[in-house]
Design goal:
It is built from three helices and four strands, in the order ααβαβββ. 30% of the residues lie in helices and 27% in strands. It has one domain (30-114). The longest helix has 22 residues, at 29-50. By secondary structure, the chain is an alpha+beta fold. Strand 1, helix 3 (73-80) and strand 2 form a beta-alpha-beta unit. It has helices spanning 2-6, 29-50, 73-80, and strands at residues 58-65, 82-87, 96-102, 105-114. It has a four-stranded mixed sheet with strand order 2-1-4-3, covered by helices on one side.
């Protein structure tokens, strides 16, 4: 429960009279990519809201980003209600899209509703 509340990866502890806390602030490539994936998911959710989609609506997601997020594909699909992600795609004929940057890394996100 503590790890979920604090959004930490691991907690090491041992029983004893004293309590000590050791924090690892090392920014790894994996942590940085996860942060970018979470920001992209927030952008997708905002785009879904802007497009008037409901929680149960499924989407096809188009993502062009300067950071490779293929390692995070399953998490993005699950949390964004996507049936698929097309990495590297930049334009849509229909649907909604947004262009911007996250920490100076440019992105293009597009979504289109998929009929059930």
């Amino acid at each position: 429960m503590i790890s979920k509340q604090l959004n930490v990866k691991t907690i090491d502890y041992s029983q004893g009279k004293e309590i000590s806390v050791k924090l690892d602030f090392t920014m790894t490539k994996d942590l940085e990519e996860e942060g970018f994936a979470r920001e992209v998911m927030r952008k997708v959710q905002a785009l879904r809201k802007e497009a008037g989609l409901n929680r149960d609506d499924r989407i096809r997601l188009y993502l062009k980003f300067e950071v490779d997020l293929k390692h995070w594909k399953n998490m993005i699909v699950e949390r964004c209600g996507a049936v698929e992600i097309n990495f590297g795609a930049e334009t849509l004929d229909k649907g909604a899209s947004v262009v911007g940057d996250i920490k100076k890394k440019k992105f293009v996100i597009g979504i289109e509703k998929v009929n059930k």
